[in-house]
Amino acid sequence: MAPIIALVALLVAGIVSLNLLAVTSAGPTGPGSSGGGGGVGGGSGVPPIANRPTPDPSVIITPPPEDRPEVEGSILFGRTGDIWAASGLDLTQLSMGGTDSAPTWAPDGAAIYFLETRETRTRSPVGGTDTSHLAHYTLYHPAIVRMAADGAGREEIKDGIFRTAGGEWFSWLLSPDVSPDGETLALASDGETGTGEVAISLMPAEGGETETMGLRQAAGLGHSDPEWSPDGTRIAFTFHAEEAGQAESRIGVVTVADGDLRLLRGRGYASPSWSPDGTRLVAERSTPNGRDVVILDAEEGGELARLTDDGRSFGPTFSPNGSQVAYLHLDGPAIDLRVMTLAGRTDGSIDVLEVKAITDDGSLDAGSPPSWWGTRSTVPPATGPSGAPSAPGPSGAPSASRAP
Q1: CA-based radius of gyration for the chain
Q2: d(Cα 40, Cα 241) in Å, to the nearest integer?
């Protein structure tokens, strides 16, 4: 019951954080499910949601080439349970079958780790103890899988299913992220036997047992969305908390060497992603109006810039050189991938130069935020007003140190 209670609490926290985001699932269900749904409706040249045909898994509708961003490197995203990559102006389908979600790059760009939702029919004792009565169950369970960057050589790293005298069960394996040295996966898991809390855990990138980091939790609400810092010394993640009876997420940062945990100030923040220099985090901010993309100071958590204000933007990640942010955008039940280009000013503030959509058919998966790989930086490091290094903008000016 402990992991079930923890999972329910975690799901409640996630539902509350969605606020006005109404995401319609149309894909596989169960742990690690991508829950594919609609796409962005509205906007110039986008057909009404009600008139859209069912998405073809092998074809993506895009804006005209002149209206799309040219991606430096490669962005992974999920669509109708399959993994796709955007590079330059090209979109490439890397997996098929409708079972895959949460892709993330290996640091060298040669491999992709992701979750596969598997279906297993089993007979287990009722309640896990009454061996005189066996019942049929269908388990939708997660497995961590790896494949080459071109989609070849699919191989299992870890399956969440396990067996006991009481039958077959599974543990949660969620949001895997690879360390910069390629040796270790950070993930959210409830342990090898599914009896713990859903918490930040570590495991070898080549496979093996998960080991919880033992970080504190708020009323058993759990953790999610781990991401390694660029230097591999810290992991940022979503710390699910409760305030006055209301679920409110916070950003936690743990030092891997000693397990020291800091909760950044401010509530309602989730899904952190590091800037290339490790000084900032791009994240979601939840309010009663929905979710928006913001930049936070990675040391204290102060909000440095608010990049969107539509209440429908989430799942952000920095580009490898820090000059852009990729994120998911919602319109009704429809989700698409967008890229914004940033420019820093000499006073440390930040401007959003432009926002362009990569996809335009509204069929992306809410549970698969983008993962961006490429050259770390083609722009000389800039220095902010405090003298500390800051993530470069496209012209070499420093990124945000305060809100515009």
Answers
A1: 20
A2: 30
Strand intervals (E) in 53-129 = 71-79, 82-88, 90-93, 100-105, 111-126
Residue given tokens 């916070």 in the structure block: 250
pLDDT category at 169 given cuts 50, 70, 90 is: confident
175 by DSSP, 3-state: which? strand
The pTM for the full model equals: 0.79
pLDDT tens string 221-231: 899 999 999 99
Q: What whole-number distance in Å separates Cα of residue 354 and Cα of residue 78? A: 24
344 sits in which H/E element:
strand 334-344
Homologous superfamily (CATH) for 2-390: TolB, C-terminal domain (2.120.10.30)
Q: Which residues of 96-117 are buried (b: 16+ CB within 10 A; e: fewer)?
A: eebbbbbbbbbbeeebbbbbbb
Whole-angstrom distance, CA of residue 224 vs CA of residue 226: 6
Nearest to 144 by CA among 129, 122, 130, 161: 161
Mean pLDDT of the chain: 81
Q: What is the DSSP string of 20-60?
A: T--PPP-S--STT---B-----SSTTPPPGGGPPPPPTT--
Element (H, E) at 10: helix 2-18
CA angle 394, 236, 256 (to 5 degrees): 120
Q: Could you give the CA distance from residue 298 to residue 234 in angstroms, rounded to a whole number?
A: 11
Residue pair 42/333 in contact (Cβ under 8 Å)? The answer is: no
